[in-house]
Write a structure and sequence with these properties.
Elements lengths: L4 H7 L5 H24 L3 H5 L6 H21 L10 H11 L2 H31 L12 H19 L30 E2 L4 E2 L2 H7 L18 H19 L4 H9 L12 H22 L11 H24 L2 H22 L7 H23 L5
Antiparallel strand pairs: 1-2
Helix pairs in contact: 1-2, 2-12, 2-13, 4-11, 4-12, 5-9, 5-11, 6-7, 6-9, 6-13, 7-14, 12-13, 13-14
Length: 385
């Protein structure tokens, strides 16, 4: 579908054909390995640091992602900027609004498993049925393709039966929940900037009580009963996953319909996507400030983790473009959509102990196995053996 520009560049050099045949796939697999590690740990900061409602964390995230996009643009300066591609970034950042509520509602492992499967299904449906103006792609083996999709749906059902432990993990340097360190939960300096006077003690207690976590560190899902919290978490995971699957649809649309558009994977559309990411989040943050009466909840300790997470995601997404160029999409797509789910599940189990008990662990392993089987079927359906 996309031209293999990496192969062309190698052929233009003095390297012999045999060297080219080895180097191109090797770099593709190396890029895939780095990308899936980043994607598999993308939500760790949300679990490790107090992010509150996640709006400030997302703002910092976008700064990191835009930095990666800007760097890429310097190397691909000849690429044409298509404003329509920014819609992909807006769609992604809209889906990402659910990230913190999902992690707080159902945890890392279950949340990412469900939204990862829905991400896969959303992307599959767009290509298979030609949604949103994309050219329809008919697989070589329709029964095998549909069987893979059914397996993916089954795995999402299996993951929904997990019962994760989503208690908050202590932040670095935190001793007890009753004595938050500076900037951990209380994000406002108890100084009235208009009068330079100290806020009365009773008002300060609303911001940083000494005997319990403040309401500032809680969001609406924290106050729901377990059953409603799980239902809401799964629902948000499905919605966000469906949106995530459409992130690169605008860039694909440009490639297929615009004359003289770049066919270098989607690398030349990374900067436009990141710009849409940043602009969309700026809009949401402005709306948030209005809703909060111009007193947004700022979590200073989430600043650096947010930027680093944005750098990780931006790098992983860019490497995904490279993987598509060096490997066929039938190979790259199953790797990039399923391996991060497995890595995230392992992190959630080993480091955060979200999944406990024989029943939960068996369900998790079964869901991962079914997901992998479905991804392999989808891959083989394009070029059946």
């Amino acid at each position: 579908m996309f031209s293999n520009t990496t192969t062309v560049s190698y052929n233009d050099t003095t390297l012999n054909p045999s060297t080219n045949d080895v180097i191109a796939p090797l770099w593709g697999y190396i890029s895939a390995a780095v990308a899936v590690i980043f994607l598999g740990n993308i939500v760790v900061p949300v679990k490790r640091f107090e992010t509150g409602d996640g709006i400030y964390f997302q703002l910092m995230f976008c700064h990191g992602a835009l930095l990666v996009g800007t760097i890429i643009q310097q190397f691909r300066s000849e690429a044409t900027f298509y404003p329509i591609v920014m819609l992909g970034g807006v769609v992604w950042i809209t889906a990402n609004l659910f990230l913190v509520p999902i992690v707080k509602a159902v945890g890392m492992a279950q949340g990412m498993c469900v939204w990862g499967i829905c991400n896969m299904l959303s992307g599959w449906a767009t290509g298979r049925f030609g949604l949103f103006g994309i050219q329809k792609e008919v697989p070589d083996s329709i029964p095998l393709n549909y069987s893979g999709v059914l397996f993916c749906i089954l795995s999402a059902v299996i993951f929904s039966f997990l019962k994760p432990d989503i208690r908050k993990v202590k932040e670095p340097g935190e001793t007890t929940p009753s004595s938050p360190s500076a900037g951990q939960y209380n994000t406002f300096d108890p100084i009235n900037t208009l009068t330079s006077a100290r806020i009365p003690t009773e008002e300060c207690m609303l911001l940083s009580p000494a005997n319990k976590r403040t309401e500032e560190g809680l969001i609406f899902v924290d106050k729901l009963p377990p059953t409603k919290k799980k239902i809401l978490g799964i629902t948000m995971s499905v919605i966000s996953g469906a949106l995530y699957g459409q992130t690169y649809t605008p860039s694909l649309y440009v490639q297929q319909t615009y004359n003289h558009s770049s066919q270098f994977g989607r690398m030349d559309y990374a900067f436009a996507t990141m710009c849409g990411l940043f602009l969309g989040n700026t809009f949401y943050f402005c709306v948030y400030c209005v809703v909060m009466g111009n007193i947004p909840r700022i979590y200073p300790r989430a600043s650096l983790p947010g930027i680093l997470t944005g750098l990780m995601w931006g790098t992983a997404s860019s490497l995904w473009f490279l993987v598509n160029d060096t490997l066929s999409e039938s190979v790259s797509f199953p790797i990039m959509t399923t391996v991060p789910i497995v890595i995230n599940a392992i992190v959630g189990v080993v480091f955060f102990r979200e999944i406990k008990g024989r029943r939960n662990l068996c369900l998790l392993l079964l869901g991962i196995a079914v997901t992998g089987a479905g991804a392999v079927m989808c891959a083989l359906s394009k070029h059946p053996v």
